[in-house]
Specification:
GO terms for molecular function: electron transfer activity; heme binding; metal ion binding. With 93 residues, the chain is mainly α. The protein has one domain: Cytochrome c-like domain (Cytochrome Bc1 Complex, Chain D, domain 2, Orthogonal Bundle), CATH 1.10.760.10. The chain is 61% helix and 0% strand. Helix 1 (2-35) packs across helix 3. The longest helix has 34 residues, at 2-35.
């Protein structure tokens, strides 16, 4: 049992890193168009919870469009929310 727990613990960080990387990829290909171009606010480094990111992305708000399930599936949305919530603010230009 100890060996199984140890094996699970070694897989967890890699899995988490993969999840965050997938979220980063979606952010760079979709979100950065507005959120790094000054159209929308910077999202990284603001301490937004994953639930807040998911809700805003799914339902929109102000100028932010809602992203339907056909735009972003639930798994990708969770990955995106985790990436944004755990990212540090970008370096000032």
């Amino acid at each position: 049992m100890l060996a199984a727990a140890s094996m699970f613990a070694t897989l967890l960080p890699s899995s988490n890193a993969q999840t965050i990387d997938r979220g980063r990829q979606f952010y760079q290909s979709v979100c950065a168009r507005c959120h790094e171009a000054g159209v929308g606010p910077e999202l990284r480094g603001r301490g937004l919870s994953e639930a807040t990111v998911s809700t805003i992305a799914r339902y929109g708000g102000n100028a932010m469009p809602a992203f339907r399930h056909s735009d972003i599936d639930d798994a990708t949305l969770r990955q995106l929310a985790e990436f944004i919530s755990k990212s540090a603010a970008p370096a000032k230009k």
